[in-house]
Amino acid sequence: ILVLNFIISYAQVYLMQFASQRVLFDLRVSLFDHIQRLPLSFFDKSPVGRLVTRTTNDFSTLQEMLGAILITIIKDVLMLLTIAGAMLYMNVKFALVAFAILPLVIYVSIVFRTRARRAYRKIRVKIARMNASFAEFISGMSVIRAFCQEERIDKKFQDVNDEVFNWRKKQIKIVAIFRPTVWVLNSLAVATIVWYGAGRVIQNEVTLGILVAFISYMGMFFRPIHDLTQKFNIIQAAMAASERIFQLLDKEEEPRVAELPQLAIPRDTSVEFRNVWFAYNKDNWVLKDVSFKVRPGETVAIVGATGAGKTTMTSLLSRLYPLQRGKILLDGTDIAQLSLEDLRKMIGIVQQDVFLFSTTVGGNIMLNELDIDDATLLRCAKIARAERLIERLPRGLDEPVVERGATLSAGEKQLLAFARVMAFDPKILVLDEATSNIDPETEALIQEALASLTRGRTCLIVAHRLSTIEHADRILVLHKGRLREEGTHRELLARGGIYYDLYRLQYV
Predict the structure, then answer these.
(1) Range 16-43 average pLDDT
(2) Nearest residue to 105 (alpha-carbon basis) of 181, 195, 176
(3) CA pair distance 235, 171, nearest whole angstrom
(4) pTM for the whole thing?
(5) CATH topology for 2-128+168-249?
């Protein structure tokens, strides 16, 4: 019997724990896959710390309920049903009197559940906000120290932490009131049975033994109810966490391949913006009726003051944001009719702020694509003029890169970004302020690399430093979201317009 009991207990715990962990595993994978497919506009409005909370804290709360509490809840519910049946079998009238208190228990539970759920929702939101603030402060620690802002940031974090603490106090009060309330109702039910049962005993309708036995059963009946009240806070916290997780899962994804008609990938690499309008916020237009065409193999630069919409144009080309009006065409094909995967494989982007992953130098160039070997990596690094950097590193391509590439200079990061683009061999190259944060020596290396990078490719260059785009085939001048001027460097200088003013500000 002991061995059988051990086996049954082991199987019960193992199977329930395994099932709960499997559910959480699948849900976490589904959530991460879903997050990767959300439009970029979602991430613009969602702090990293809040998203991390969804995939860590909220899942931990769910795990606590599924892993341990769920088994107990099932046991308690089964015990309730069994004892209720026994009470009805023993004496129907006594049972109905005892059950008369249940509607009040249910009502109280609903009232407290509503208030507790609201408190837990607020707690989850405040914790997410606290995590977002913490992540932001850690990322900006160099700025905080440089400007002696430690005390102000400490006060700001304390305020956020106080909000979490205050809502925790409200949640504790709710639970603290709920449990004794159920005990009072339990005592009221027992007192009612004693009063009613005593009358029946005096009238010889039932024996004293039946009454005593029934009261004993009532104690057993309310025991699982008390167990459930003790787990009340965990259940409500898990419900609030699951609501937040499923709210995120309900966010609409970008349209994928299966939702779009299969069209042939353009063989040509011409790019055309046709009457393009775009706004991040409703009616606040960043681009206004922009139209131009880039021929295959042509290098076109885009210049303009800060906020003119230059970077927005490159984001729209990769469909990182949906157009409100107009079209963008590749070889005459509307990019909205191409799958995102096919479209983005055609375009290689080097941004101003290069993001490096916590892996090796080689891993950051090939992004862990298994079909790119070391020989290809070194060839790409040589074309991008990054081979000297790799040769200086103790482990070469296997040199570890710390978080955000903190041990590398801005210029070194840019060289690795150029090598990364070359490794994927795109048809269209987009350079978004790629030379704005580098020293003159590194800029000279990059200018050498650009000749190799742009050869045989359609190239769009967004630039503030006009010296880097003087040799572009054409230059587009954006001003307040509109395309105002177009021509070569010399033509635009001779025209004496907006480009001339920008050039004079930099060099005169």
Answers:
(1) 84
(2) 181
(3) 13
(4) 0.72
(5) ABC transporter transmembrane region fold (1.20.1560)
